[in-house]
TrEMBL record:
<dbReference type="InterPro" id="IPR000182">
    <property type="entry name" value="GNAT_dom"/>
</dbReference>
<dbReference type="GO" id="GO:0016747">
    <property type="term" value="F:acyltransferase activity, transferring groups other than amino-acyl groups"/>
</dbReference>
<dbReference type="InterPro" id="IPR016181">
    <property type="entry name" value="Acyl_CoA_acyltransferase"/>
</dbReference>
<dbReference type="Pfam" id="PF13673">
    <property type="entry name" value="Acetyltransf_10"/>
</dbReference>
<protein>
    <submittedName>
        <fullName>GCN5 family N-acetyltransferase</fullName>
    </submittedName>
</protein>
<keyword id="KW-0808">Transferase</keyword>
<feature type="domain" description="N-acetyltransferase">
    <location>
        <begin position="11"/>
        <end position="151"/>
    </location>
</feature>
Amino acid sequence: MNMDEFELKIKTTDELTNQELLTIMQERVKVFVVEQDCPYQEIDLQDNDATHVFLMDGAKLVAYTRIIEHSDGEHVSFGRVLVVKEYRRLHLGRKIVAATLAELRVNHAGRAIKIAGQSYLQAFYHSFGFKNVSDVYLEDGIPHVDMVLDN
């Protein structure tokens, strides 16, 4: 599969079409609630003002992240990183995180990027320069660790 075939889109919640919003929410629930067997409020108030970074294969969502601005003005974060099941092992996780970091460098230069990553992905995030700033803790029953990247 040619990586250039995927279209990168970056939109605020208000800019999303109804179909894009539904598709994003369906895939997020599929991955974070159903696949991970983790009942929690997946769609939350942070979605109201989020920026959504996603890769499309034609009309199909294949990878996604959500950028959140924090009211402290000192840092921004991203999360809900996913690759649709049938597109995994194509390095799209790396591609979507790189695109998200590029967006953050343009629109949030100088602000630290703080994430709560699932602990099994520490090496993945470390490869982008993130450093752990917490011990591993449980969030909704899943081991996480806080990490920061200077921007």
